[in-house]
Amino acid sequence: MFIYVYERVYASDTFMKADDFATDTFIETDSELEELATNFQFTEGPIWNSKTASLLFSDIPANRIYQWVAPNKLTVFREPSGNSNGLVFDREGRLLVCEHGNRRLARSRLVPSARVWWVD
Prior knowledge:
By secondary structure, the protein is mainly β. Helices cover 3% and strands 48% of the residues. The protein has a single domain, classed as Neuraminidase, CATH 2.120.10.30. The strands form three sheets. Strands 4-5-6-7 form a four-stranded antiparallel beta sheet, with no helix packed on it. Strands 8-9-10-11 form a four-stranded antiparallel beta sheet, with no helix packed on it. The chain has a three-stranded antiparallel beta sheet with strand order 1-2-3, with no helix packed on it. A hairpin with a 2-residue loop joins strand 1 and strand 2.
């Protein structure tokens, strides 16, 4: 599980229970949190890619999507990101990006430059 607290990203091997919403109930008391990265402005949209064993997440004000790969490799996956605030994979493994700044849903393969836009 990945936990976002302001400008920091943490990982835990304990998963959140669907019916627990308070911080002290979805993190086991004996869990250890590991700080993965810091110095972000406002992060959202985390999604785990099991094929590449990497985490994608957005920093909305920075207009970037980051990719974190274990053990400690953080790179900019896409910039500008359209101030993305939500990420999800479709059934074909393509990345769907909710672009707040561009008011659109963008679909791409996991190559940042290969994009197809849906605009409504």
